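<instruction>
Derive structure tokens from the sequence

<record> Sequence and structure tokens follow
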Amino acid sequence: MKIDSMHARDTFDLGRQCGEKAKPGQVICLYGDLGTGKTVFTQGFAEGLGISSPVNSPTFTILQVYDEGRLPFYHFDVYRISDPEEMFEIGFDDYIEGEGVCLIEWAGLIEEILPETRTVIHIDKDLSRGFDYRQITIEEVEE
């Protein structure tokens, strides 16, 4: 599915809608360059889960856990990971096999350890369509 986002609010609202539909054990992998709106999507997603705490990218901590919503929410930002094996040191496998929802920003950096079944979301800019325009592609992957 491809969605046109004309403003950051559109990206946030799409994230919220996805959060409202999220299921236990779901793993969502976000792909996109710096400044494409991965964190905006994630903030909307958290709101859709019923989380009212501020949500920011956990770039320096790698993982932020939110327990206040209808499902536990595990927000990973793996931008600073140099080796995917580092993820197992923080219990990555426990989170992706748990009853919460995992959302992974910069998922391409740990591609080889991602679960076979996951939701893949690409957020891409196209400046020819405007500064705020994003094309968001969502697909379910089962390898």
Summary: DSSP finds four helices and seven strands in the chain. The helical segments are 8-21, 38-48, 86-89, 92-96.
